[in-house]
Design goal:
Strand order of the largest sheet: 1-20-22-23-19-15-18
Radius of gyration: 31 Å
Distance between the termini: 31 Å
Largest sheet: 7 strands, mixed
Helix content: 10-25%
Bound molecules: adenosine monophosphate, magnesium ion
Number of helices: 8
Length: about 425
């Protein structure tokens, strides 16, 4: 398998930290963001940090489920002629009264008149000159929605830890809540570093490439539920890096950088991060994505901010985000389902993987009697096309250097959940 990553070969295996170990270090140090009250639309998609109970019955009065006539069922059998004595619409303040032999015109959602015990739908009644003729015998309770039909006063409708979906947002409104206590969306600052980087629409000068990582990573952070901000490109310069990181750390709940964590002369990111806070550099036994910086920076009057220094190769940054940053972002949001769904898939072609490292290969999937996987073409860490086509990441364990066609591998699905 080709790899254009610079530091993938000739690594002393004793220097490597395993993927699980690095994930454990990252995830064990991250706790959910302090809950705050947000209005319903801001809270949508966030994890609830309180139990929500109903103060009153929902609905809190007995109402009609149909347009029709409120009646006393016993006196309104098939063929009966009733006296029309009034009308109640939805929103009516004082409920009418119905006596045996009477009918009150009623609309869906209107309070059931005192004395009535059934609604005869308009479809089975005829109204003429103040009289209502009934064509089908009602039973007591027909088309009546009792108070508390949906929710009983005192009932817990949503429990802490639940991720708020659309129906939950409606339920909050239904029990009289315009706000909810939730873990907020993390604000993520994304910074690409490198002297060679240019903006997408810039005309490239010799030696320049376009900055792709800040775009990919910002989009990935958004997809992971964060509010992400892309910074302008920062050159390989100690002062510029320090200023950019300090600026980002002044508002962010997480900093994600790319580039500058390898062994090159101008790989200053790890030095600058280590100067700002407690950030360590690791060689993780994975491909792509071996060099990883992770740690915390504490600014005055603020909580420690987790910082990820991801390698610069576009696929390395992409995979590193998937494996380490995305689960961390989900934990910040109070989510407990940190990982992508995974499946087993049968390889349609042999795959190679470096010794002592877990490979995360980009694969397309095909479903037949079982799932089948094949690589998305060349898998070099600079080949972003391999991620564009990917349905998932096939994980090849570190003790394997070759996996044959027909063997089964674990694939992490690159789908939102
Ligand atoms: P580095 O991790 O800084 O040594 O970069 C490794 C490789 O990734 C180099 O070829 C860089 O030019 C490339 N690279 C670094 N940052 C980016 C970026 N933001 N977008 C695209 N390529 C990048
Ligand atoms: Mg660089």
């Amino acid at each position: 398998m080709a790899d254009s990553g610079a530091h993938s070969h000739h690594v002393d295996p004793d220097e490597l930290v395993s993927v699980e170990e690095h994930r454990r270090v990252v995830l064990s140090s991250i706790t959910p963001l302090e809950p705050i009250e947000l209005n319903l639309f801001e809270a949508h998609g966030c994890v609830l940090a309180e139990d929500v109970t109903a103060a009153a019955d929902v609905p809190n009065f007995t109402r009609s489920a149909m347009d029709g006539y409120a009646v006393v069922a016993e006196t309104a059998g098939r063929g009966a002629t009733l006296r029309l004595t009034g009308e109640v619409a939805a929103g009516a303040r004082d409920p009418a009264r119905v006596r045996p032999g009477d009918a009150v015109r009623i609309m869906t959602g209107a309070p059931i008149p005192v004395g009535a015990d059934a609604v005869v739908p308009v479809e089975v009644a005829e109204e003429h000159n103040g009289k209502v003729q009934v064509r089908a015998t009602p039973d007591a309770g027909d088309h009546i929605r009792p108070a508390g039909e949906d929710v009983r006063a005192g009932a817990t409708v949503l429990r802490s830890g639940r991720r708020l979906g659309a129906a939950d947002i409606g339920m909050l409104a239904s029990v009289g809540r315009g706000r909810a206590l939730v873990h907020p969306r993390p604000r993520v600052a994304v910074v690409s570093t490198g002297d060679e980087l240019a903006e997408p629409e810039a005309t490239l000068t010799p030696g320049q490439i376009r900055d792709t990582n800040s775009y990919t990573l910002t989009a990935m952070a958004q997809e992971a539920g964060a509010t992400a901000f892309r910074h302008t490109i920062v050159p390989d310069d100690r002062r510029a890096l320090t200023e950019a990181f300090e600026g980002a750390l002044s508002y962010a709940d997480m900093l994600v950088t790319s580039g500058g964590v390898s062994a090159g002369r101008y790989d200053l990111v790890k030095q600058v991060l280590a100067q700002l806070g407690d950030v360590a550099f690791s060689k993780v036994g994975m491909q792509p994505g071996m060099p990883q910086a992770f740690g915390f920076v504490t600014r005055p009057l603020s909580h420690p901010v987790p910082c990820f220094g991801l390698p610069g190769n576009p696929v390395s940054a992409f995979v590193s985000f998937e494996v380490f940053v995305r689960p961390a972002l989900r934990r910040l949001q109070g989510r407990t389902d940190l990982n992508r769904p995974r499946i087993s898939a049968v390889l349609e072609e042999p795959l190679r993987s470096p010794a002592h490292k877990v490979s995360f290969l980009r694969v397309t999937l095909r479903r037949d009697d079982v799932w089948y996987a094949r690589a998305t073409g060349p898998q070099g860490s600079g080949i972003l096309s391999s991620a564009v086509e990917a349905d998932g990441l096939a994980e090849i364990p570190s003790h394997r250097t070759e996996v044959a066609a027909g063997e089964t591998v674990v694939v992490h699905l690159l789908v939102s959940r």
